[in-house]
Amino acid sequence: MTETGAVTGLRRGSRVRLRPSRGSDLFDLALEGRIGEVDRVEEDLEGNPHVVVVLEGDPGRDFGASRGQVAHHFYFSPEEVEPLSGDRPAAPPARILVAGIGNVFLADDGFGCEVAQALGRRPLPEGVRVADFGIRGMDLAYRMLEGWDTVVFVDAAPRGAAPGTLFVIEPDLREIADAAPETHAMDPVRVLALARHLSEGPLPRVLVVGCEPEVRMTGEEPDVQVGLSEPVRRAVDEAVPLVEKLLADLLDRTGEEVRSQ
What is the rounded CA–CA span in Å between residue 15 and residue 139? Predict the structure, then answer.
């Protein structure tokens, strides 16, 4: 099964009363009227949704395997669970993609790749995905169309500051309307142009975490250069907590917007 989004208003944390159908097995029928909490909603290979429920009072629900208790999960169709009146389901987490981009064979251009790999070794909030796209511009353009709320580019970008300087900007997506899409380039502007060309709706919000490079290469040089310069290497260690703080701010802001609705 694959995890999916909300079904009939049910999300993780929703409280429900179990109403198994007459054709259910004896174990499910014995749970008639019990209160449960939705752990997740999944789809089977045929696309049929199943609500995964943990019973209230199950000691493993709160303590988990680390305390020697494992919660029992029960699977019901959406028609077999009754949402409790007045119980507001938990808001779904924001979906944020962090995309490391760059060429590791062009010195400091590999900054975004290094940051993505470092973030991938750390725990991430629910709803956040980190990927090192390297120079795969088309892959990133298509991934941007998968329903993300925000996409964060991490890239080396010269702006005339001291090498290793970090910055966060939000590009105006209207300015890329006239850019020519390019399927074999990792220029962020052309990636955005390609994503806009492919999309039938608006693009997600885009933020850029950039770093001023010390060594700038064009790809026309006779030799490759693997490895970051010293100031950009130090900037990787600074960029990781910067991105984590940015993610926390984005998630908090999304939660406040949902609570105000």
Answer: 39
Spatial CA neighbour of 43 closest among 75, 1, 95, 79: 1
Distant-in-sequence, close-in-space partners of 239: CB < 8 Å, separation ≥ 6: 111, 115, 154, 166, 209, 211
139 membership: H or E segment, kind and range? helix 137-143
3-class secondary-structure state, position 149: coil
State the DSSP H helix or E strand holding residue 76, giving kind and residue range, or none if neither.
strand 73-76
Distance CA 48, CA 28 (A): 19
Query: Which tens digit of pLDDT belongs to each residue from 154-194?
Result: 999 999 999 999 999 998 887 776 666 666 567 888 899 88
pLDDT, tens digit, 9 for 90 and up, residues 22-60? 888 888 888 898 998 888 888 877 878 888 898 887 654
CA distance 258 to 9: 15
Looking at residue 110, the DSSP 8-state letter turns out to be G
* Interatomic CA distance for residues 34 and 257, integer angstroms: 33
CA-based torsion, 196, 198, 200, 201: positive or negative: negative
